[in-house]
Structures are given as structure tokens and as C-alpha cells.
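User: Can you predict the 3D structure for this chain?
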Amino acid sequence: MPLNVRVVVAALLLAGVFIQPRPAAAKEFVHYETSASSGTIVIDASRRRLFFVLGDGKAIAYPVGVPRRGAEWSGSASVNGKFVRPDWIPPSEVRIEEPFLPDRVKGGASNNPMGARAITLDRSDIAIHGSTQRMRASIGGAVSHGCIRMRNEDVIDLYNRIDVGTPVLMLP
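Assistant: Here is the predicted structure, written as C-alpha cells:
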């Protein structure tokens, strides 16, 4: 291949690296000072991060999608259920916006927005859950009707670390 063609190809490949949207980093162990006790889930909506507090100034941080304007919430909650590949029944506010949705989407279906796991909270229709392949790109945004959206691999990791009763703190 002539040198000028190789230069053009290399330049296009390099430009592609810079043009492609960069996904938020997957889970990472971080320094995190908080008054929340070890084992608490802290969701920082403004930072679009969920922290699983380990204690001693350490936490596991995950990128998340948070509630959009008008669906925000803050305060305390706790985990009241854990589900593997749950079915999804669209809540009434979702059905109003998208009346064509089926009454139920079976767990494991490629169009099921709950993804691989759902961690339900003691708040009406609120869960920390996985995502469809199509929804992965929304992680890091204010996108949901109140739920916390995670990558499937991250929600599986968090699911395996927590129990029913785990405290949850949502920061604005």
C-alpha cells in the first residue's frame, strides 16, 4: 500500500477514535468519603454515579442513568426485592407516553428494559436495574422515569454484593 494511502487510512482510524462517543468507565474502586455506613448504596444523581460503600473511605463506583427532569427523587430507601431476569410490566406513566407497549415483557427478552437483574426499592415502581443493548448508551444521562439504570454486568456485580434490607441513599 502506498505511503499516502497508509497515512490517510491511519488518519481516518485515528479520527474514528476521537469521534466515537466514549462510554462511562465501568465499575471502579474509588476513594469515597461519606457518613453512610459500609454496605450502603449511595446514588449521586448529579454525578451520574452509584457508590457501594465499602467503608474506610472506599467504595465501588458504577456509572448509572438517573431519573429525568420531573421524575427525580431524593432521600432514603431500602432494597425490598432482588430479581433475576425479571418480567417488566410498564408503569402507568410509561404507558401514557408509549401506549403501544405490551402489557408485559418477559424476563430475558431483548426488549426488556429491566435487563439481567432488578433490585427493587421500597418506593413505588422504583428499581435499580440493568438495561437493553439499545439503552446502554443512555447510561450517564438523566433518562428514566425514576429508576436507576445500569449496565447488565454492573447490576449483576452489585446484585451479588447486597441483600434485601440494604439501605439506599439518593442524593440530588
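DSSP finds three helices and eleven strands in the chain. The longest helix spans residues 3-19.
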